[in-house]
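Lecture notes, unit on protein representations.

Consider one protein chain, 173 amino acids long.
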Amino acid sequence: MFADNDILLQQQVMQKLVGTIFTTRNFAHIVHLNTNKHFVHITMEEFYEDIVDLVDELTEVWQGRTLMRIGDIPAYKTNACNDPLEEFKNHLELIESFRRELDEDSSIQGLIDDIVCLYLKTIYKLAFFGEDKREAVAPSPEITISVDTTTDEEPEQETDNFFTSMNDEEPVL
């Protein structure tokens, strides 16, 4: 599967990857507790609740694949005063750089895809749902749906009445 040196390098990359995700989770929780904007409060809560299961599954699958424990996970510092949108974009960039260093095992890469999707969904919400962000986004053009109800054929006359039986009795329901 892996040479000894390769597996040690893979372990170090996984440690950095998981450490980065843990840092984002902690950052999101701190911002959640300190923001005065409801949409940020909810968005951060959704992230920190969802990311725990995703990173746990990734780590367990990696350990199952390599038959090796992940070991020490670094604790990175971040400033909760940083702009959440920029912080998430920066952390996502790190995650994507670490993923390129990992083995291309589809089970592991698929789980990283799920993590990346959660980051992107969070970035989307932060970018487009903030009160101050709404004005910066160009409004969507109005969408009009029209249905042509004219036909060249005349409508057929109904010959059966749904509520009467063949004997013209009251319907039995």
